Amino acid sequence: MSDEHKNEQTVDSDVKTTFSDLWKKEDWWSIWIGFILIGFAMVLVLPHVPDDPAQKMSIPSAKWITKPKGWTSHPLQSFVKTQAEIDAEAAVKTPAKPQKPYNVIPSMIVLLIGIGLLFAIGVAAMGESFGRFIGAFPLMFIFAIVSYWIAGQSGVHSYGLEYVLWALILGLIISNTIRTPEWLKPAVKTEMYIKTGLVLLGAEVLFGKILLLGPPGLVVAWCVTPIVIIFMFIMGVRLLRLNPRLSIVIAAATSVCGVSAAIATAGACRAKKEELTLAIGMSLIFTVAMMVLMPIFIAKVGMSPIVGGAWMGGTIDSTGAVVAAGAFLGPDAEKVAAVVKMIQNVLIGLVAFAVAVYWVAKVDRTPGGPEPSLMEIWYRFPKFILGFVAASILFSIMYKILGDQIAPLAVDEGIINLTKTFRGWFFCLAFVSIGLESNFKDLCDQMAGGKALVLYVVGQSFNLVLTLFFAWLMFRHFSFS
Amino acid sequence: MNTLKKTTINTDRIRRWTAFFGALFLLFIFIFVVIPMGNSVPLLRVILKHNRESGIHISGLFYSEVDEVAQFTQELLSKPSKTQRPAESMASPEGHSASTQ
After folding, report:
1. Number of H helices, E strands in chain B
2. Which residue among B19, B62, B77 places its CB closest to the CB of A177?
3. CB pairs under 8 A between A and B
4. Would an 8 Å CB–CB cutoff place B29 in contact with chain A?
5. pLDDT digits (tens, 9 = 90+) for A271-315
6. How far apart (Å, rounded) are the C-alpha atoms in residues A27 and A291?
7. Which secondary structure element, helix H or strand E, spans residue B43, and what is its range?
8. B33 at interface of A, judged by CB pairs closer than 8 A
9. Can you tell me the ipTM of this complex?
10. Is A324 near chain B, with CB under 8 Å?
11. Do A404 and B78 touch (CB under 8 A)?
């Protein structure tokens, strides 16, 4: 590995492991907190799963695990909306989905206390100050709330500009103007928030879903992706002479599923925060452009909606943007795009694990030194990836055992519906932290004279062409009947 | 000397807070002025209107954050699987499966 990473802040650094690491190391605490929350969600959900799959499930305590809602011109509607306001809006225009009145302020307070205490206990066990963390965490949580609030504005939301972007911008504004206050720094825990979020993300990676569209879906989502990742990595490292970590994070963001893949891969290869920020920034900008241009192009050239949907599902980075773009072309395109994207999302687990192993075994080796032993690989392996993979295996098995009728209720609508909310909060806190620890100069340096952008554009172009070919090959005769 | 140092610190502090509020103001302008400008671009207007009215969670990062994916998944799961087709093709002309005869 090059020397430039030795003295610079990476996502994590670990050497030898001992038994006490189970309660002293951040990686293990991310696993404990992640599984505590998974267990908590199971306890809340499983007693309420109906015996009859046709019945709707109601989880009374789920209202406490939520986030700020969308709003248009009344900012406070992100937190409180009355029935009168809903009726007044419905009188002007029928909403796309039925709405109920809400007040999320009490749940924000409960989440602030609950999440704050969980992390504070972990921080204290790792030898830092419980009090300082608790004192700093409320402001971090408020920054996360503001990020969600901005992302929920309907104009912003219609572009698909996600909460992670606003969390980053907010943090950057503070750190590059008034500077991050010293008293806030104990709660600026990028790695811990990201790793815990990734353990929870593992619960959403369900391997049983990859055959939903049969071989066509699997080929477009799982065959094209590794080819593009390898192509981009080799191009980035050998041709453009970019940092390997930056290259692999950009490659994963482009070929798998954008922000989530970038986060998982950055954690797996211990990338720098600035590298992650750059990859995500480019991914978000191009996601908006592709969400707008691709459906229009597909309609103009008269492409089959199903082939077009598969093409968009395999190329546009975020799932929301994929579904929106697919919906623009019609119900069949929307369905294919959404399911191809979901199948591609599931690949994130394998990619993160493979990158972690490759980095530990090959990239981080001493140049000219011997092959690392299995114990050495274990010492250096980012342990939170094990939590990520374990959560994925646990939930994939649970999904299979519960069966196709009960599993969507218990797992998708139930447990994952709760864990994904926690996961969103942790990613939001992580990106606020990244912003608070970054400065514009370091970010600009990562652009490497535009080479990072060249890598993204060339890689995405290759991804577009290859995916279009396979989408046409595999889906040209596909029918839902 | 101390007075000069204090003045420099105060000036620096004022400059930083001015930059902070200036950045927040620019953010405000971007969200409420620049972003709505997309509605005056014909190409963008159609897509943005569709996105707003569809109710889809456009900024969902992962499939679990977009309700439509769960709905489509359930539809596909409830379709008869391909492995049933050989049995169905061996069925009686009336369409009943061999096992129910």
Report:
1. 4, 0
2. B19
3. 152
4. no
5. 999 999 999 999 999 999 999 999 999 999 999 999 999 999 999
6. 36
7. helix B42-54
8. no
9. 0.84
10. yes
11. yes
Residue B58 near chain A (CB below 8 Å): yes
Per-residue tokens: A279: 């990859």
* The residue to which tokens 């992100």 are assigned: A78
CB atoms closer than 10 angstroms to residue B84: 11
pLDDT at B100 over 80: no
3-state DSSP assignment of residue A134: helix
For all residues of chain A together, what is the average pLDDT? 90
Per CB-CB distance under 8 Å, the chain B contacts of A408 are 70, 73-74, 77
| Structure-token pair, residue A138 | 């409320």
Q: Which residues contact A453 (CB under 8 A, 6 or more apart)?
A: A282, A447
Task: List the one residue out of A99, A300, A149 whose CA is nearest residue B46.
Answer: A300
| Structure tokens, A134 | 């608790």
Which distant-in-sequence residues (6+ apart) come within 8 Å of A317 by Cβ? A253, A254, A257, A258, A259, A283, A284, A286, A287, A290
Contacts of A247 (CB under 8 A, 6+ apart): A232, A233, A235, A236, A237, A240, A455
Interface membership of B53 toward A (CB under 8 Å): yes
- Largest CA-CA distance found in chain B, in angstroms, rounded: 104
SS3 A372: coil
* Subunit contact A178:B23, Cβ cutoff 8 A: no
CA distance A332 to chain B (A): 10
Helices (H), A126-235: 130-151, 154-158, 163-176, 190-202, 214-218, 224-234
Instruction: Say if residue A456's pLDDT is above 60.
Output: yes
Sign of CA dihedral A49, A50, A52, A58: negative
